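Lab channel / #folding
Pinned by the channel admin:
"Please post every new chain as: sequence first, then the structure tokens as a reply. Keep commentary short and put observations after the output so the thread stays searchable."

First post following the new format, from NK:
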Amino acid sequence: MDLVIAPPYSPSGQARRSMQRHSAKGTARVRGRYGDIGLSDRQPERAGRRGEETVDIEEALYTTRAMRRVTSDPVPMEVQAKILDAAIRAPTGGNAQNWRFLLVDDREVIGRIAPVYQHSIEQLWQTVYADRLSAARARPDLEESVSMLKVQRSAQWLADHFDTVPLYLFGFVQADPTGGSIFPAVWSAQLAARAQGVGSSLTVVLGYFHPDEVFEILGVPTDEHWVMACCVSFGYPTGRWGVAPRRPVHEVSYRNQWGSPVGFTVDRPLWPGTPGSGE
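Reply from TO:
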């Protein structure tokens, strides 16, 4: 018999109080492009103004989804430092740390990449997603069609506004064809950004369609076996954080043998902050 798991009751505000109890004190210094950057426990004013003063791990895990629509407001250097410092703490195979992270906020450089990205997205719609888009447009009333077209519009927004996004992170890796080291690090960067009220979205289309052009624009060595794993956009979102709708875990998970029931049923998100789950 399957075990049905219901979200536990949680007092209002528990998620944020947890972070507050465990926050460290003091201020560190990081050398930045424009001098030393003070890294204090206090969240940057920009994120605080959006009400993102503290976010605990469960809230970050449940609400860090693709946030492509962002403002052009710059991401402060102290926030960028926190994002990358969190990224490099991720596990890496053999502790090789065979990765490089390239932040891009220069408007001229971003402007050169923009048309390359836009062409990549055009190619994506015409190849990988061609059949799904055609089916969705033929039956726009279906639930899966609504979802597909919504994602397409969001991705196209990023392509159309690529040159207005304030910050990009390019992840590069050597001798890691699986991505087993670089992607945990990039995801840590996205979670760290979420904790600062910064939205992010990962894309791989540039490496799939136009890696050589991007290497040239960014000055990446072509004789050291670097591979561009991904590009992540960062910025302060124009929308609201929320739990992304997904197929229930028991519909996509098995136990011991392929196709065997996982042993429990989760009918709604288990994060206490999800609407209707007790908070």
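NK: The mean pLDDT is 84.
TO: also worth noting, The longest strand covers residues 227-235.
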